[in-house]
Amino acid sequence: MRSVEILVPGGKATPGPPLGPAIGPLGLNVKQVVEAINEATKEYDGLSVPVKLVVKDDRSFDIEVGIPPATALLKRELKLEKGSSQTGKQFVGDLTLEQIIKIAKIKKDEVLSHTLKSAVKEILGTCVSMGVTVEGKNPKQIQKEIDEGLVEIAE
């Protein structure tokens, strides 16, 4: 049994790089694999999605779809191509705390945090590095308000 881990565009993988060269040597029908990956990742249309292809000895395969990076989920919420090139000086968008909580819930199983509160703070940290404000405030301010108990995150 062998496995290949790749990042593909949700629902839009093609037989070309990076997928084709990665799975070609495994002796699989590339077209069949691409169709299966596109079906499995279609809900993440427009996002980069981590995919693990597990190839069994009989050349059958399983696809394990990961969750897109937090940056990709934030960009989708904001309908952006990329974050700020001048973090701290230039802001590219503003999200609500509800949107941050929604992303934290999606990512909760993959982040280092054990609670939703910590996951929210982790996503807020990503907002800082991307140049995204939350409810008009610097995300660091929201993190501080969570620590001080001024903002409640219900588990």
Would you give an account of this structure?
This protein is an alpha+beta fold. The chain has two domains: 2-65, Ribosomal protein L11, N-terminal domain (2-Layer Sandwich), CATH 3.30.1550.10; 70-147, Arc Repressor Mutant, subunit A, CATH 1.10.10.250. 39% of the residues lie in helices and 17% in strands. It contains six helices and five strands. It has helices at 19-23, 30-41, 70-78, 97-107, 116-130, 139-147, and strands spanning 2-9, 48-55, 61-65, 93-95, 132-134. It has a three-stranded antiparallel sheet. Strands 4-5 form a two-stranded parallel ribbon. Helix 3 packs antiparallel against helix 4, helix 4 crosses helix 5 (116-130) and helix 5 (116-130) runs antiparallel to helix 6 (139-147). The longest helix is centred in the C-terminal third of the chain and has 15 residues, at 116-130. The protein is elongated. The termini are far apart. The model has no long low-confidence stretch (mean pLDDT 89).
* Gyration radius over CA: 18 Å
CATH superfamily of the largest domain: Ribosomal protein L11/L12, C-terminal domain
In CATH, what is the class of the largest domain?
A: Mainly Alpha
Mean pLDDT value: 89
Notable traits:
155 residues, alpha+beta, Ribosomal protein L11, N-terminal domain, Arc Repressor Mutant, subunit A, 3-stranded antiparallel sheet, two-stranded parallel ribbon, 5 strands, elongated
